Amino acid sequence: MSAVQSAPIAITLPDGSVREVAAGTRCLDLAEQISHQLAKKAVGARIDGKLSDIRTPLERPVQVQIITTDDPDGLTFLRHSTAHLLAEAVIELWPETKVAIGPVIADGFYYDFDRPEPFSSEDLEQIEKVMRKHAGAAEPIVRTEVPHAEARARVAEFRDHGELYKAEILEGILAEPQSVVSFYNQGAFTDLCEGPHVPHTGVIRHFKLLSVAGAYWRGDEKNKMLQRIYGTAYFKEDDLKAHMHRIEEAARRDHRKLGKELDLFGQYDDIGPGLILWHPRGALIRNEIETFWRKAHYEGGYDLVYTPHIAKTTLWNKSGHTGFYRENMFSGMDVDGQEYLVKPMNCPYHIQIFNNRTRSYRELPLRWAELGTVYRYERSGVLHGLLRVRGFTQDDAHLFVRPDQLESELDRVIDFVLYILRTFGFDKFEAYLATRPEKFVGEPAMWDRATKALADALVKNGLQYEVDEGGGAFYGPKIDLKLKATLGRSWQCSTIQVDFNNPERFDMKFTGADGKEHRPVMIHRALMGSMERFFGCLVEQYAGHFPLWLAPVQCSVFPIAQDVEEAALQIADTLRKAGLRIEYRDAGDHLNARIKEAQLAKVPYMAVIGKREAEAGTVALRLGTGKQEVMAVGDLVDRLTREVQDKSLPG
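Above: the chain sequence. Below: its structure as C-alpha cells.
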C-alpha cells in the first residue's frame, strides 16, 4: 500500500507570487527551487515576519523571504553566530569559564563571561585564533527544541555544572507556559538560545574582537560583575576594514580623549562620578556658545529667566516628579525643618512665574528660556564622559500659548532648532514623532491637533520623520530630533514636547478676549539638550578643531628670533585690540617645537614673524593644516574678524 501524500502548502514570496511545496520543505530547499544562486547566498529566512533559520521546515501556508548575505538582516544571523563562535572558543581555552548571554547589538555583538582572571589583549588574539579554527571546520549549527519537562531537568544540570546564568535564563523561559525552549549546537559547544543562526560556522569569515568591558549580570549593580567581550563581523572583508577604520576614527575623535589632551574639562574622584569641572579653555568655548544662544533667543522673541537649584518637596509633589520620577532625583535636605530637593527639571519654576499674577490673552505667547543646571541620578554603569552625566545645564525653554497659537509656535520652534544646530555645522537629522499612548490626560481632539501641528511643522521645515506610535508621554505628544554627526552616529539632543498635564496640575489660567478664564497649552523645548552633551558632540564633530569663533586660542604669534620680538609683540597687541584671542609664544624655544605645540593644541592660525616680516609689517600666516601665506597685518585682522563674525565652519 502506498503512503498517503499530504497536500502541498502555498508559500507566498516577497513579490506576491505563490509556490506550492510539500509540507516539511525547508527554507533552504525553497531557495534552491527559486534559484541555485539564491540558495548559495542564503543564510536565513523571514517567515511571516519572524527571522528564522534557513533549515526551518515549512508546515503551513506562510509568507517567506529568503535572507541572503546581501540583506541587512543577514548581518543579524552572522553576528549572532559569531557570538556563539566566540563562546565556543573561550570554553575550549578556559573550560572553567561560565557563559551568560551573547546578543547582537548595533554594528556587532558581545558575549558575557564569568571568569576569575581578566581577559587581556593577548587573550583576545588567542580566542580569535581558535575561532578561525572552528570557522574553517564549517561546523553545522543545529537547532534542537525540547519539551518543558526535559528543559526542567536541564535546569538542574546547569546548576550542577555551575552554569547559574543559563539556569536562571532557562527558569525565566519556563515561567512562560507557551514558550519554546531551544538549544543550538556547533562542534562540542551547546548553548541555550532562541536563535536564529547561520547554517554552519564556515559562513563566519571576516570578524574581529574589539574590546573587553565590565558588565553587571542583568544590568543590575547589585549583581556580579562579568566580563563582556565585544566584537563585530561582516560578510565582506572590505566592509570589516571600513568598520575598523570608523572605530579608529571614532577613537581619534573621542571627546573624553580630546577633552584631556586639549585641557577642556575633567572629572575627579573627590567631586563624584557624572559631575563635570570645566577648565578655562572649555569654559571659554562654553561661554561663546552660551553668548550666541542668549543673543539668538532675545532676537527670537524669548525672555531669559533664572531659577534656584533647590525647592521644597511640596513643589515636586505638585508637579508629579516625586510620584513618577523620584528614583532619578537625589536625596533631599532639611532646611528649617522642611525637606528640599535638588531640581531635576526647570519646568515647575517657570510655571510659578506664570502663575504669580493674572495673565491676559494679549500677553501670550510667553517664551521663557533658561540655561538651568539640573541634577539627575544616573547609574554609574551608564555614565559616559559628557554625553551621560548627573549634573548638566539644559538649554531649556517653556512656551505658554493659547490653543489657537499652538501650530504657529511649534513651527517657530522647529525653525529655531534648525537655525541653532545648523550654525554649528549639523545639517543631517533623524526626526521622531511620538503619539498618544493608551493612558493620557487631556482631550483626544487636542491631542490630535497637537500631533498634527508637530507633523506639519516637521514637513514644512523639510524634515522626514518616523512615527513612534503610542510613544508620547501621558501628558502630550513630542518630537525628538537626533543629530547625525560625523561617522554616521546619531545623538539625541533636541526635544519639543506639548504638555496638557502641567497646566491642569498647577491650575494655570489666562483671561481670554471673552473675559472668561482659559487654560494655556505648555510647550517644553530644548535645542541642544544640554551644554554638556552638545559640547561633547561638538568636540567629536570637529575632532577638536573648533571653528575660529569658538577656538580658545584663535591665533598664535611666533617671533622667529629675539631680535624681532618687539615687532611680534606689537602685532599680537593689534590682534588682541581687534577682539581676537591671541597666544604669544616667545623665541625661547626652537620655532618648530613651538609650532608643533600649537598644532597639538589645534590652534587654527599661526602668525610667524621673521626679520623680513617685521620690516614689511606682514606675517607669514600658517594654518593648522600646514599651509602658509604672507599677508599684511591689517589684512590678517580683517580676515580673522570676518571669519569670527560669519561663524565660518572648518573646511
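The first helix runs from residue 27 to 34.
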